[in-house]
Amino acid sequence: MSDLDAKAALEKFKRRHDRNMRASHAKGYLLGIASMLKPGDFVIDCGANVGDVTEPLAATGATVHCFEPDPYAFKQLSKRFSDTPNVILDNAAVGTEDGTIDLMRADNFDDGPRGGSVKSTVLTGGRAINETNLIEVRLVNFIGFLQKMIAEHGEIAFVKMDIEGAELDILEAMDAENLFAPIRCCVAETHERKFKALRPRFKALKQRISETYPLSKVNLNWI
Description:
The chain has 7 helices and 9 strands; from the N terminus they run H-E-H-E-H-E-E-E-H-E-H-E-H-E-H-E. It starts with a helix and ends with a strand. The radius of gyration is 18 Å and the shape is globular. About 35% of the residues are buried. It has a domain at about 20-90 and about 145-220: 3-Layer(aba) Sandwich (Rossmann fold), CATH 3.40.50.150. Strands 3-2-1-7-8-9 form a 6-stranded parallel sheet. It has a 3-stranded mixed sheet with strand order 4-6-5. Strand 8 (about 185-190), helix 7 and strand 9 form a beta-alpha-beta unit. Helices cover about 40% and strands about 25% of the residues. By secondary structure, the chain is of the alpha/beta class.
């Protein structure tokens, strides 16, 4: 192996190691959150996909409202939680307004729908996304939904957001409306690596949030 090949292999190993470490941290964080949830708590799972995060949240007895726009993932989600009364399933994307929006899937979606569905997005400009085969999905104004749920429940126990880039507009609006305050804990996976043009906005948002809230309350580096 040449020095160049060895360097490339080492960099690949480091990237994989870093991904594994982030995933392990996220799993541990989620288990910690779940240990503090109880029946009567209200939880929101944005980008529920097939329910791997929903499951431990629902097991606590808390009410879990799931948003998932991809038809394939939502079908699996529906099968998985058909007999779980404390899970509310909403076949919709979330944004900052109500209406409809085009959903785009990964270029390799057909090669493995389960893995490919986690990359489905409503935001154009992402890497390895097919922007020609569009699926129209319902769009829910998450800010309005959140305000309504806060009015009904007083406090939101937990919000998880993994929505492939669409989180930026929502998180900025939540910050502007002071909607993190009545949420006990909010975590988000941000996707600035996939959307280069949005990186300055992500950086500014993370700086503001870190200066206002402790990591235990708002974590924008969940994965």
